[in-house]
UniProtKB/TrEMBL annotation:
The lineage of its organism: Eukaryota, Fungi, Dikarya, Basidiomycota, Agaricomycotina. It comes from Lentinula raphanica. It comes from the Eukaryota. This is Integrase SAM-like N-terminal domain-containing protein.
Length: 189
């Protein structure tokens, strides 16, 4: 809904102007995703707006024209959302990484912590790692040390990701639990 309201605001429309949104505006909102997100993501945004409208007791103006627009958005899905299947990362690969003693110890520790955090936290690298090694280029939407909570009574830690693929605004929480393997994400952190 926030994405929709921002879209409307860029067109000079406030929340009262889009209560309920016209079919034309809904279609324009859907078209704005063409080539940027997968069709399923666009449909999710439209669904959220529809629920918001209905929850407010207003009539939903979407119809067959919107269905056609969404089919078009699906055909113009960005190439990055349809990728060849990659081979899975396995614990054995992490063990090899941990055995590597080449280079600076501080770098190795950071690399290993990042690798096990991504693996055991089932995270996408883009949600936790910067594109540049420059501290000045570190994006604010990536987690920082302060986003990692102290261990609870079981030794688990919670990492707050400020932004994820599906939670652009609120972010997500990832629970990092200790394990009894030689590769322990909590110990690595």
């Amino acid at each position: 809904v926030d994405v929709f309201l921002l879209f409307a605001a860029k067109r000079g429309l406030g929340p009262k102007d889009v209560s309920p949104p016209t079919e034309q505006l809904i279609c324009e909102f859907a078209v704005s995703f063409a080539g940027k997100v997968a069709g399923a993501t666009a449909r999710t945004y439209i669904s959220a707006v529809k629920k918001w409208v209905i929850r407010r007791g207003l009539a939903w103006m979407g119809g067959p024209r919107l269905d056609q627009v969404l089919k078009g958005v699906n055909r113009h899905t960005p190439e990055t959302s349809v990728q060849e299947e990659r081979s899975p990362v396995k614990v054995e690969y992490l063990k090899i990484l941990f055995q590597d003693r080449e280079g600076d110890e501080g770098f190795r520790r950071c690399r290993n912590a990042a690798a096990v955090l991504l693996f055991f936290g089932q995270m996408r690298a883009i949600e936790a790692l910067p594109h540049s090694s420059s501290i000045n280029a570190y994006p604010t939407f990536l987690p920082r040390v302060r986003d990692l909570a102290e261990p609870n009574e079981n030794g688990a830690r919670i990492l707050h990701l400020p932004k994820t693929k599906t939670q652009q605004v609120r972010g997500e929480k990832v629970v990092v639990t200790p394990n009894r393997m030689e590769i322990d994400p909590v110990r690595a952190l």
